[in-house]
Amino acid sequence: MYDELDALTADGVTLRIDRVTARGSRRGAVVCLHAMMTDGRYFGARRDGSFASTLADAGLDVYVADFRGHGRSVPPRAGRGDWTFDDLVELDLPAIVGAAAAASGMSAGELAILGHSLGGLVACAALGTGRIPPPRVLGLAATSVWLGETLRRRTIMRAYRGITKLLGRAPIRALRIGTADEAAGYVDQLTGWAKHGRWTSLRGIDYRAALDRIATPTFAFTGATDWMCQPRDANQIAKRIPASEPLRVVGKTSGDLIDPDHFELFTRAELTALHREIAEKLTPPAA
């Protein structure tokens, strides 16, 4: 069964959450967090045979959230039309976790979190800085941060920063490279990491160093042909988390049917076996 929830942030922004209830006996609950420049629709909460449907078939309540300014979580009003990565960490994710816990009748510590790309970074930053209680398990899909490691990445980030400054926002929809424009404050912070080579909050908190404080059991995976998050990029996050399993590279050399890119991890039917594997990792062991 599918329905919708709202989560109200501490600064008054209403976030939308799709819920797919577990089929059969419920075994757990998971919060799914989407990537940059898009929203949670690709998890497929409203579609049969989707990734979210696979999780529900495994006995999980699935909560697919949209961060502010993405999907149905409309850009904040009343002077809050701009936002930053820190707002997602400090305001959005705590509200999402609280709403999911309340709706499921579970504690925040009993939930699982699966973050894809931006969603994974937000989850890591929130956990490392104590903004949310530790979940039962953390899944990190194609999660990395660009710190200006190559000329190509520095060039992309400079262009991203320049067009955003010119237009006052990142025109993602007009360029047809995603479904959600990104705010100027967010892009300024994001591109600043590549410029200075450090993943930090606007107040100077070192998010990368904070990964060492995450005690949650963690599993990480990325696609073999993902140019945005190559295996060495994903490892820069996963290897800093003490309780993380070795990185899983999804592709033919690992026995998967295809070599997926950034979003195909969740959208390709050929990866149903992977989706069941993820569901099992997100599900609490039988008592």
The number of helical segments is 10
The beta-strand count equals 10
Low-confidence stretches: none
CATH superfamily of the largest domain: Alpha/Beta hydrolase fold, catalytic domain
Can you give the helix content as a percent range? 25-40%
Describe the protein's architecture and organization.
There is one protein chain. With 287 residues, this protein is an alpha/beta fold. The protein has two domains: 2-145 and 206-282, Alpha/Beta hydrolase fold, catalytic domain (Rossmann fold); 147-198, no CATH class. It has ten helices and ten strands. It has an eight-stranded mixed β-sheet with strand order 1-2-4-3-5-6-9-10, with helices on both faces. A two-stranded antiparallel sheet has the order 7-8. β9 (218-223), α8 and β10 (248-250) form a beta-alpha-beta unit. α2 packs across α3 (118-128). The longest helix has 20 residues, at 85-104.
